[in-house]
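hi!! sorry for the late reply, been swamped w classes. u asked for the two structures so here they r. pasted raw, havent cleaned anything up. first the sequence of the first protein and right below it the tokens
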Amino acid sequence: MKRLGITLLGFLLLIITAACGTNQDKTTIQLAEVTRSVFYAPQYVAIEKGFFADEGIDIELKTAWGGDKTMTALLSDGADVALVGSETSIYVHAQDSNDQAVNFAQLTQTDGTFLVAKEPKPDFTWDDIKGSTFLGQRVGGMPQMVGEYVLKQHDLDPQTDLNLLQNIDFGNIPGAFSSGDAEYVQLFEPTASTFEKENKGHIIASFGEESGNVPYTSFMTKETFLDDNEQTVKQFTRAVYNAQEWVQNHSAEEIADVIQPYFEDTEKKMIASSIERYKDQDSFASNPKLDKEGWSNLKAIMDEAGELPEDARYEDLVNTTIAEEVIGK
């Protein structure tokens, strides 16, 4: 009996040791997202479905609430990886940084905002905006640049044909619209659908449909981190790709079930409706490779807005090697 007890004790010690070894093998990645949005559904799926865990990665997710804050976190080692608009890597490049921010996995491939009006517009045309008060996004950010790009495509000058307001912080824009005098605003989901449900606004157009393919939000990291942790970045990208495939192959309702914990104050039906909007316009990238055509479109939009500080070569700021290896292309 004594020998049996010793044997069992040894067996238990082996189990505990193995468990400790597994935890020690995990790599922790500090991930900073630019905002919390249904637009980033595949990221939350990758966490909740265990795709990161399957690759030996523990994710510490934090929301930075703004592109500038997200990049500051990345560049100051407050984050290992950032999910943010690809334009921010171009801004860093223009500052002659010694450690470039490199895009290695694309998450969304269209703009994620919708044009919301205070009043119903069943027969809306873009000319209706002329002379109105339009609550815009932050100067130099992708939502604002895409918004101006789309308006110009419809022969509207954002600076002269409407009263463009850009003095509201990103997080306060929804509240400013509902309580202020602006007639139009750009909103992400699920805020846009929530406003519609509460009769605070009406979705009348999609900037994503109007602006075409663009690497709107990508995972990026510093060049030195990529050089020192290539295998970890590859595992991270594989987890993202698995989540992207899962999102492509499951319904909006199934995706909403998974990501509900990230939107506790939003009804699951509303989350599903928001996801459906994004799926209908192919906002979620089907794989992590950021292609050259999308990069060129990004620079064209920035240039049109007068925000392209200098040419930024695709080859310098985009790493496709990892994504290509992960997806087998």
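now the second protein. again sequence first, tokens right under
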Amino acid sequence: MTRRVLDVESVLAFVTIADFQSFTRAAEALGTTQGAISVKLKRLEDRLGYKLLERTPRLVRLSAQGSVFLNPAREFIAAHDRAMAALVCESRRFRLGIAEHVAGPEIPLLLARLSERDPALTIEVRLENSRSLLNAFDEGALDAVIVRQEDDRRSGEDLGPEHFGWFAAPGFYHQPGKPVRLAALAPCCGVRDIAIRALNSADLEWSEVFVGGGHSAVMAAVSAGLAVAALSCRLAPPDAVEVGQRLGLPALPSSRIMLHSTLTDHRSRDALRTLVAVYREHRVPVHASVAF
């Protein structure tokens, strides 16, 4: 009986496609093309004699055999990476800064994927306001930062749009003719600047009744019904509602999320590709079509 030998790159292609449920985003994460990753998957399926993934015009999902093979495939890749790391014996640090108003529920998965791809990588994450992170980046204290575009005009990797809205608790009451009660981040926060410029341009009176304390504190103030806040539509508290139209508040301009990095070596760029792919995956709206 001929022994079937697995190809590491083909198995990695399968696992990555399964994780992202997208050929396009898997190719981005692996730094290759959709065509190349399709060829690797076909090679693996031919080697095993099973169809591992089912592909339709709207989604990619595991076949019955793919579901059985996925965890052993992960273990196969992890064993390969451990073996390679043992030979290299090079423990490295990856110092990543993420702006507080940008960080969302994708962060734990992002860190897990980075660790899976490079077990010798020690990841350090710093959550602060954009300006503090950019200063640390310019001083060489951070290897990469994720911030909003208007906080820094230099060129970088565009991770996608960020849309903002006015959020409050469902029962929040604003007395007509009175200043809008506003909860905001610290005075150095760009989101606060956007909100105040919009209110001033619309000639609306406002009063900050809750200032500072970080993004989580502002969201807590919103959930408690203390005030209205300008927040990312992606990161607003699940129990809050958009009240801009109801209260006659001005529309807030959208932003772009940018990745800045000085890293150029192969292993670091590989980590950055994984970071970008995971971040973009979790920024796709729930009802958006999945790209293949």
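hope this helps!! also noticed smth abt the second:
The longest strand covers residues 92-99.
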